[in-house]
């Protein structure tokens, strides 16, 4: 990843990984898609390649991200889902026109509007891909939040993070959104606290 921008936090679940493009929400927030082309970069990583992204499309993406975060957080806490966030997720899902194809290798590949040659009423073929990609993300969020997968939504135990993640572990007892970031940080904090409690040599 470019040193100019924060690295992406990549996970196995599309929707919750997308919410991770804004991290440390309860500390010093880190925006990982600060400009349109970084959203393009992120989508490429998840097999949703688009040629370009406008500032308005980036705004739509961030709106969807926050809607998924709010809804997943409510679901993880057993709270009522926020109606405005649900509406945004459903709108993005309905507006997407991506099509899933099975590859000869037995994997799924997404074909977005621009990639399949579709055009809008103005013939602006290149503008369609982002909305289609957001539709895929929204549909994935619906499946996760509706409980259609084997696992459960949980919130990161880090007080500065509290990211929603999907726990597919056998025990369903994962505490961290990412062991290499939040988990290690908490382990180091506990180690340092324990070291401070130890009496100095000769005491």
Short description:
With 203 residues, this protein is mainly alpha-helical.
Features:
6 helices, two-stranded antiparallel sheet, mainly alpha, 203 residues, globular
Q: What does this 3D model show about the protein?
A:
By secondary structure, the protein is mainly alpha-helical. The chain has six helices and six strands, in the order H-E-E-H-H-H-E-E-H-E-E-H. A two-stranded antiparallel ribbon has the order 1-2. The chain has a two-stranded antiparallel sheet with strand order 3-4. A hairpin with an 8-residue loop joins strand 5 and strand 6. Helix 3 packs parallel to helix 5 and helix 4 packs across helix 5. The longest helix is centred in the N-terminal third of the chain and has 23 residues. It starts with 13 loop residues before the first helix and ends in a 6-residue tail after the last helix. About 7% of the residues have low confidence.
């Amino acid at each position: 990843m470019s040193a100019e921008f924060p690295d992406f936090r990549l996970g196995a679940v599309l929707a919750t990984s997308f919410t991770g493009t804004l991290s440390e929400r309860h500390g010093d927030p880190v925006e990982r898609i600060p400009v349109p082309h970084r959203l393009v970069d992120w989508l490429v990583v998840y097999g949703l390649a688009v040629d370009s992204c406008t500032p308005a499309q980036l705004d739509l993406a961030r709106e969807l991200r926050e809607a998924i975060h709010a809804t997943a957080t409510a679901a993880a806490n057993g709270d009522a889902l926020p109606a405005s966030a649900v509406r945004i997720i459903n709108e993005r899902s309905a507006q997407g026109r991506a099509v899933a194809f099975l590859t000869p290798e037995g994997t799924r590949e997404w074909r977005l509007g621009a990639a399949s040659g579709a055009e809008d009423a103005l013939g602006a073929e290149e503008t369609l891909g982002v909305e289609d990609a957001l539709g895929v993300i929204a549909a994935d969020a619906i499946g996760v939040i509706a409980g259609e997968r084997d696992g459960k939504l949980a919130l990161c135990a880090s007080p500065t993070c509290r990211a929603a993640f999907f726990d597919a572990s056998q025990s369903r007892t994962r505490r961290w959104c990412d062991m290499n970031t939040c988990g290690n940080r908490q382990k180091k904090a506990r180690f340092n606290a324990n070291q401070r409690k130890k009496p100095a040599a000769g005491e």
